Amino acid sequence: MKVKSFEDLQVWQDARAFVKSIYELTSNDSFKKDYGLKDQIQRAAVSIMNNISEGFERDNNKEFMKFLGYSKGSAGEVRSMLYVALDLQYISKVEFDNSYEEAVNIIKQISNFKKYLRNYAMKEKIKNIKMFLLHILNIN
Fold it and tell me: What is the pLDDT of residues 13-29, one digit of tens each?
């Protein structure tokens, strides 16, 4: 499938679903009263999907990879804050495990996507070098 927009990316779709689950998780009575933690974990979750979309719209693989790195960092931040929520008993162990696994899944997707982009960039460089050498040598 040809990716025409960031909405076509599975990692962005999963990040979007993750944001919804984080908002639902933080809507319980005890969690929502801790405004600082609630707001921070929500912002970090939203940042995951926003950095994927912003990087995609840069139309430059190097910039895209940088924004994927930010996105991965935000997913790590959410994972860390999930521990705080668990320790403060704002969420159950089952809720923690489910959210943690969602975050890890997104992190793995981002890592794999960055690897793909690095490999693609390398293939493009090799292709350009070959074309340049052929041009210099006048070989068609």
Answer: 999 999 999 999 999 98
